[in-house]
């Protein structure tokens, strides 16, 4: 009889097993979410649980935990015995999402501008504006989109209002699908980047009214451009 048979390897401790399970579930959640937000899994896409397990190289338990998180965030529908389906975004969905995001970001901008010491948030926002400008100089639209997404998350996260930040993050995830889908349909986002820089300048000056006015104008222009794209290309859902 072999030594390994006489002395089997000890089973993982319960705490270690739990940590590993959480890590696998987090990995499943993150990878599927990445595929959805990048439109690799477009709206209406459906996949069986077994096929997804094979793609991700994991068992059903951590996969199901990841899927439930994505369902709670409104990105997918879990289908009993049929895996998952990515929830499409209709034109009305997109309009509703942008309406709420605009309201949340206006509040965040006012809050940040009103902080006695906002040097930290301003520095982080400014860094993303610089990265957007550099990406445009390289004609790197994907790099621009990454920096733009980070900018909007920082704006919400630094507001000091955790409920606002949580709501904004969920809606930003959903809107990201549309922004990536239309990234190469619209004009080079030079004016959008300039608006971001102006917003940061207003926040740095503690000009709350100016920050709100600047961001409201940016959002209004953005939404008009997006709705124009939807009409021009006949986009009904993604």
Q: Would you kindly provide a written description of the structure presented here, covering whatever features stand out?
A:
Strand 2 and strand 3 form a beta hairpin. The protein has 238 residues and is mainly alpha-helical. A three-stranded antiparallel sheet has the order 1-3-2. The chain contains ten helices and three strands, in the order H-H-E-H-H-E-E-H-H-H-H-H-H. The N terminus is likely disordered. The protein is globular and about 55 Å long. Helix 5 packs across helix 8 and helix 7 runs antiparallel to helix 8.
Question: TL;DR of this structure?
Answer:
This protein has 238 residues and is mainly α. Helices cover 71% and strands 4% of the residues. It has helices at 3-6, 14-37, 49-56, 60-72, 91-114, 119-137, 141-157, 162-181, 190-204, 208-233; strands at 46-47, 76-79, 83-86.
Helix/strand layout:
Blueprint: H1 3-6, H2 14-37, E1 46-47, H3 49-56, H4 60-72, E2 76-79, E3 83-86, H5 91-114, H6 119-137, H7 141-157, H8 162-181, H9 190-204, H10 208-233
Antiparallel strand pairs: 1-3, 2-3
Helix pairs in contact: 2-4, 5-8, 5-9, 5-10, 6-7, 6-9, 7-8, 9-10
